[in-house]
From TrEMBL:
It comes from Candidatus Segetimicrobium genomatis. Pfam families: Amidohydro_1 (PF01979). Residues 59-343 form the Amidohydrolase-related domain. It comes from the Bacteria. This is Amidohydrolase/deacetylase family metallohydrolase. The modification N6-carboxylysine is found at residue 164. One of its GO terms (molecular function) is deacetylase activity. The keyword Cell membrane does not apply.
Length: 414
């Protein structure tokens, strides 16, 4: 036991500890001192002032790392507030992908990141206006200012971990593949990973594949849109598969429009698993059928992936994707970011974005979340914005209550 001259501040006692990335699995106590993990072992000694968190009948994992989120509340179309959702979902590290561009990043840092208990990092949008509006951020090519973006990256390398470009028919309207060429050059110049979003083209998935490199992140990888990475005869798209074999990271980014059971089932059947499972949580997807990251992870459990494979894809692997291996781990000395889950068994229904239904028998339910050894208080979530109205075909999810995920209020009646 480390820190033997001092009692633990906190012991998370009696849980089933699971950190696939660090190779830790077993029924252990977890000792926390000064906000860091200082012991993972059976039956740790309790001091007179040690706070005990009872984790019996729970799975204890590293705090989840969500590789695709939108948490720039109040200044963007999509952003939600991270902290209230962190406290009920186990997500302690939020990678906001592209909500902020060069002009809006200083505000993101000052007004959101500095005030959040959850850890927030960012991929900077190539478009200098970021995601203030729902679409068209590249339609004015003047906003693709790589020199300006590089300056913002260099001034904020503690927080900016990559470059983001949404590439589909709505974002690039009229300018073709040019924004991705600029994003490619920018990512190479600042030596950070590039995350590319796909959906419905133009451009085509082939045009996008030409500009991707190993170490880049393809998000919405199981989309059912016409840029999907499954061919008409059900096989993996050849260029993407070759890139994936060489280290391209396939990231789920479920969202409100980007997760198809059909695509998922076809790729999983060929042994192609996503490298990272992320939520793409935002003003719309939080209403369902995505709901939150534990619900998204539960979908993959019920598609046949193991608990270990699923947890690794929401902890160590996303941390590695953004080159922050010190996050999403229970290794001794790490920040004590933890999540407690019950793995519930029953009859549950889950839906993809087209509201195709699958039944399942297991779901992960978060009960407690700690950042740097301190539990996050459960606080109310802000009302959704007036524009956050689900598309018509998804509205039935609002009546279905707790089928697969949690329910929150929505604006569907507006
Ligand atoms: Zn997104």
């Amino acid at each position: 036991m480390a820190g033997s001259d001092k009692y633990f501040d906190v012991i998370v006692a009696g849980g089933h500890v699971l950190d696939p990335g660090a190779g830790i699995e077993g029924d252990y106590d977890l000792g926390i001192t000064d906000g860091r993990i200082t012991a993972v072992a059976a039956a740790l000694t309790r001091g007179p002032t040690t706070r005990i968190i009872d984790a019996r009948d729970h799975i204890v994992t590293p705090g989840l790392v969500d590789l695709h989120t939108h948490v720039y509340w109040g200044a963007t179309y999509w952003g939600i507030e991270a902290d209230p959702v962190a406290a009920r979902s186990g997500v302690t590290t939020w990678i906001d992908v592209g909500s902020a561009g060069a002009y809006s990043f200083p505000g993101f840092r000052r007004y959101v990141i500095e005030h959040s208990r959850a850890r927030i990092y960012a991929l900077l949008n190539l478009s200098s206006i970021g995601l203030i509006a729902p679409t068209w951020e590249f339609a004015n090519i003047d906003y693709c200012d790589a020199d300006l973006a590089a300056k913002i990256v260099d001034a904020n390398r503690d927080i900016i971990l990559g470059i983001k470009a949404r590439i589909d028919g709505k974002t690039t309207r009229g300018v073709g593949i040019r924004p991705l060429e600029i994003a490619r050059a920018l990512a190479d110049r600042v030596e950070l990973p590039l995350m590319v979003h796909i959906g419905n083209g133009p451009p085509t998935i082939e045009e996008v594949a030409r500009l991707l490199r190993p170490g880049d992140i393809l998000t919405h990888c199981f989309t059912g849109g016409d840029m999907r990475i499954v061919t008409a005869d059900g096989r993996a798209q050849a260029e993407i598969k070759a890139l994936h074999d060489r280290g391209l990271i396939l990231d789920i980014g479920h969202g409100a429009g980007s997760f198809s059971y059909e695509t998922a089932e076809r790729l999983l059947a060929q042994g192609i698993m996503p490298d990272v499972i992320s939520s793409d949580i935002h003003q719309l997807s939080i209403q369902g059928p995505m709901f939150d990251l534990p619900t998204t992870l539960s979908k993959f459990l019920n598609l046949g992936m193991s608990l270990r494979d699923v947890i690794e894809r929401a902890t160590a692997r996303p941390a590695r994707a953004v080159r922050r291996p010190e996050l999403g781990t229970l290794r001794l000395g790490s920040q004590a970011d933890l999540a407690l889950f019950r793995l519930e068994e029953g009859e549950y229904a889950f839906h993809d974005v087209e509201m195709r239904r699958r039944s399942g028998t297991r779901r992960l339910v978060n009960t407690l979340t700690l950042v740097a050894g301190e539990p996050l208080a459960k606080t109310p979530e802000r009302p959704l914005h007036v524009w956050a109205v689900l598309p018509e075909h998804q509205r039935p999810i609002l009546e279905r209550g707790k089928e697969g995920g949690s329910t929150i209020h929505s604006n569907a009646d507006l």
